[in-house]
Amino acid sequence: MKNSKSKIKGRGAQKNIHNRFFEYSHEIRKDFLEFCNKEGELADKNRTQYLSVFPKTIVNKVTSPDVGMAYSMNMYQGCEHGCIYCYARNTHEFWGYSPGLDFERKILVKKEAPKLLETFLKKKSWKAQTIVMSGNTDCYQPAEKKFQITKKCLEVFLKYKHPVGIITKNALILRDLDILKALAKDNLVAVNISITSLSEDTRRILEPRTTTIERRLHAVKVLSDVGIPVNVMLAPIIPSINSHEILPVAKAVSDAGGLALSHTIVRLNGAIGEIFTDWIQKTMPDSANKVLSQIENCHGGTLNESRFGKRMHGEGQIAKQINDLVKLAKRKYFKDKTMPVLNTGLHQAYKTGQLKLF
After folding, report:
1. Cα dihedral across residues 265, 75, 82, 192: positive or negative
2. Edge to edge, what strands does the sheet with 59-61 contain?
3. Rounded to 5°, angle at Cα 163 from 108 and 308
4. How far apart are CA 180 and CA 256, in angstroms?
5. How many of the other CB atoms lie within 10 Å of CB of 171?
6. In terms of C-beta distances under 8 Å and separation of at least 24 residues, what long-range contacts does 303-312 make, across chains too?
7. Looking at the chain, which terminus has fewer C-beta neighbours within 10 angstroms, N or C?
8. Distance in angstroms (rounded) separating the CA atoms of residues 79 and 46
9. How far is residue 137's CA from residue 74's CA, in Å, rounded to a whole number?
10. 130-143: b or e for each residue (b if 16 or more CB lie within 10 Å)?
11. Cα separation, 306 vs 312, whole angstroms
12. What letter does residue 3 receive in the DSSP assignment?
């Protein structure tokens, strides 16, 4: 894979694109870049900023019928992992930022999330259902090392004996192994770890600030060995980038103790189409047109796909080949494995934070 010398190091997106909600746009002019070069200054310092925000609620009801969760919560908005394909990029526009570089460099931090979660779980009207961290951005992204909001939220789930799902691609999850083991004793936790490739070269360009594949597989094994159920998400599968790795990834996951494999086919909705196209032309110029064409083939001739029932797994010959290969991988490596249904029966007795005696 040929990398452009102009590629911004350590980032997925290679530019900020216009926020569709704004009348005015911001651009870096060539004469400004030339001035910075002559003065020996950096036009862009490429630094990550952490910005505190104060939402009134933290748990979101998920109305989409094909995402596999009913409720989600996100401790952070934006994600420093910088995955170029991330569907969550579009949501950064709602906060007044670009879905491009801003998504990776302006991380919004919800420090009050544990208190908001506790208030929600204590509602008399709430009947326990699995709440997933995170449905949007990774709850174990680099910001978690500093703020530890995810850890504090897990402690709340444990206190109230409430089921929780976790989606991440970061081995930082092992930091909280003791809390996860305590939840697992009552069947209150399931983990979903994203592994899109076994190639470090591919990982570095697709997901520049994520944990290595070796460490992710190690996390699958450690979690599985202590009885914490793990599903691995091969998501997204991108034709001609990682589509040839379905069977090897499935085998590696199964060997590590994973109980299930799920997948999606890449879709580039909203601003992501422009961001991804710019990225692949700079990062993989020789194969850019081929990859973009094959993505379009999976979605009726467009990069954008929003139809429920079609958007996750696509349609057409290329999509069929991918989906059939995933089915084969599941039969071959996960035939006698299954993820458990989490326990929703304990929470009601712990609404006050302690078990009722009468």
Report:
1. negative
2. 59-61, 71-73, 131-133, 164-168, 189-194, 230-237, 260-265
3. 70
4. 18
5. 20
6. 303/267, 303/268, 303/273, 303/276, 303/277, 304/267, 304/268, 304/269, 304/270, 304/273, 305/267, 305/269, 306/269, 308/64, 308/65, 308/66, 309/65, 309/66, 311/66, 311/267, 312/66, 312/264, 312/265, 312/267
7. C
8. 14
9. 7
10. bbbbbbbbbbbbbb
11. 9
12. P
> DSSP secondary structure string, 296-328?
HHHTTT-S----TTTTTT--SHHHHHHHHHHHH
Q: Which amino acid is located at 41 in the chain?
A: E
Return d(Cα 116, Cα 56) in angstroms, integer: 8
Q: Which ranges constitute the DSSP H helices of the chain?
A: 30-39, 101-105, 113-121, 143-147, 149-159, 177-185, 200-206, 213-225, 246-255, 272-283, 288-298, 317-333
pLDDT tens sequence across 96-109: 899 999 999 999 99
CB-CB neighbours of 96 under 10 Å: 11
Q: Are 253 and 220 in contact (CB under 8 A)?
A: yes
Q: Where are the domains of the chain?
A: 49-334
- Give the three-state DSSP class for 216: helix
Cβ atoms of 76 and 136 closer than 8 Å: no
Q: 49-334 belongs to which CATH class?
A: alpha beta
Q: Token digits for 86?
A: 């991330």
- 10-residue stretch averages of pLDDT, the chain, 358 residues long: 60 80 64 64 76 96 90 97 95 92 96 98 96 94 97 98 98 98 98 98 95 98 98 97 98 98 96 94 95 97 88 94 98 97 96 59
User: Residue 204: what residue type?
Assistant: R
The three-class DSSP label of residue 24 is: coil
Tokens 């997933």, located at residue: 132
356 Cβ contact list (under 8 Å, min separation 6) = 349
Q: Which two tokens stand for residue 218?
A: 């190690």
